[in-house]
Design brief:
Length: about 280
């Protein structure tokens, strides 16, 4: 009984600690920090509920059931990192968006042009950043990923300070949650045709060189004559139901020469090179 109580208290402490994450930001965010705390506390009560399954058979008769707490469990952990750009004018505007109910959007982290990192949601919580998306067989990316928003309109370079902070954050997340190298991707990858971020200017090659995602090698082996590009895109993870959109998303991430939805011979060679890494 004592061991079970300690485990439940530990789980509650993890969730309740979420309410402390934003208390270092003073002033105008005090009210939204309070809402965060209240919501986290409510979730902790849900987590600690000990309700047996209330089931009935086809005749409406209750099926015997009870609650027996297992001692073998932990919190679910993120397995992907999804990178976005904010497409807004400032970090302040983004924080305002993420602290209003109406937009129904959020992220775990926001990184400013000056390199400042703002943690907005405990990593074990489910943020609303991916939207309608798909990667491989996963159709609910919000439930298995961490969302990182970079202060950038999408038509400008990413600052050195911002990228340095991103790389340090990615290293921490990769270590903390044992995230596979292939699972650092962009919003545009999981929502082709709907979202382009982090865009054609994002330095994916830099990230790949640090172990966060894959990128094409410098020396590219030509694709064979019978190379099936649609199948390769699908096996990488792209949703190919809208094939032109998937091609565009691939090119923004791995080719980064032009924003188009057609594959040149060079693009096919790059695709073949990248496909072999997955």
């Amino acid at each position: 009984m004592k061991q079970r109580l300690l485990l439940l208290l530990f789980a509650a402490a993890i969730i309740s600690s979420c309410s402390k994450k934003l208390k270092t930001i003073p002033g105008r965010y005090a009210a939204t920090n309070k809402v965060y705390s209240q919501h986290a506390d409510s979730l902790s009560q849900t987590l600690l509920a000990e309700n047996p399954a209330m089931l009935t058979d086809s005749l409406g008769s209750p099926i015997p059931s009870e609650w027996v707490g297992t001692v073998n469990f932990n919190l679910r952990k993120p397995n992907y990192v999804i990178i976005h750009y904010t497409a807004q004018d400032s970090v302040g505007q983004t924080l305002r968006t993420f602290t209003l109910v109406k937009p129904q959007v959020s992220a775990h982290y926001v990184i400013g042009k000056d390199g400042k990192v703002i943690h907005m949601l405990n990593d074990y919580m489910r943020a609303w950043h991916a939207g309608i998306s798909k990667w491989g067989t996963i159709s609910d990316m919000n439930s298995c990923s961490i969302g990182i928003e970079l202060d950038n309109k999408g038509n400008e370079p990413f600052s050195t300070a911002q990228m340095n902070s991103l790389l340090i954050l990615l290293a921490k997340l990769k270590k903390d949650y044992n995230i596979p190298t292939a699972n650092f991707i962009g919003h545009g990858d999981i929502a082709p045709g709907r979202k382009p971020d982090p865009g054609i200017r994002f330095p994916w090659e830099l990230l790949a060189n640090k172990g966060f995602g894959y990128y094409s090698d410098i020396i590219i082996v030509p694709a064979p004559a019978n190379f099936d590009s649609a199948t390769a895109l699908r096996l990488i993870g792209y949703d190919t139901r809208n094939l032109p959109a998937a091609i565009g998303a691939f090119k923004r991430h791995f080719v980064q020469r032009e924003d188009s939805t057609t594959l040149t011979q060079f693009d096919l060679d790059v695709l073949f090179n990248v496909y072999k890494k997955y």
